[in-house]
Amino acid sequence: xxxxxxQWQVFVSIADAGTTAAAGxxxxxxxxxxxxxxxxxxxxxxxxxxxxxxxxxxxNAQGRALLDPARALLAAAVDLERLAGVGQIQAGAQPLxxxxxxxxxxxxxxxxxxxxxxxxxxxxxxVDLRIGNSADVVAAVQRLEVDLxxxxxPCHESGLQVxxxxxxxxxxxxxxxxxxxxxxxxxxxxxxxxxxxPGSGTRxxxxxxxxxxxxxxxxxxxxxxxxxxKQAAAAGLGLACLSRHAVADLLALGTLTVxxxxxxxxxxxxxxxxxxxxxxxxxxxxxxxxxxxAFGQQ
Length: 298
Hints:
Layout: H1 5-17, H2 20-27, H3 31-45, E1 50-53, E2 56-59, H4 61-84, E3 97-103, H5 104-121, E4 126-132, H6 134-142, E5 148-151, E6 161-175, H7 185-190, E7 192-195, H8 201-214, E8 219-222, H9 226-234, E9 240-243, H10 244-253, E10 256-258, E11 266-274, H11 282-287
Helix pairs in contact: 1-2, 1-3, 1-4, 2-3
């Protein structure tokens, strides 16, 4: 049996894209070359990996069993090239490339100062920071596209290693105006709430913190980013429940104010998410303040 990385790359791309044509476009291969690579792989394994349903290819049980190991194999090959410094070695120095996925609050407000400190100590380092909602970050971890993910809500996908990182204080904010310094439960219940989209860690944390007390949001407006929510709140469109880190700038400017309420103090757990097949570089652990044995890989 002679299996190649290219065959496994084609297999993973088809699993993600659903057709040989789409996978070929991702890999800059013709559809015929993509189909040929898949057929050769299946012939060597003596087992089909997909069910053919119309024009789509859907993973069967054998394909599902091999998908994660195939992703891990491809990620290990990328890591090996990175460690060897293929095409990047300059003056004998080993290049450093870190790939992080982070949900929006973490990526926009918690990581920049940490990354800046890392780059100050390692001028040749490169940091690829992918920012999306928590569901997007978990998906990137599953596909081994990042070394580590940081999310604002719990991870609901199986097969990933999840560890607590740090806690994040949540505050209710409103536009600075008379009558916003203090609100009772009945006022909160009838207010318009500015919320992130489903799948966002912030949305899930807000619902967990508020709904036990308010029972439902009488009025809500959905916005696609924390920045949009902040500006909408500052414009008087409603109340927002956000990380104190995210609203620190507008609180300092005085355009937002923290609303005093009868609710108990609110916070959420921030989480680290890792694929078991992905090795976390020690310098990345140091960047995030993790103990050396955080993932049991030392």
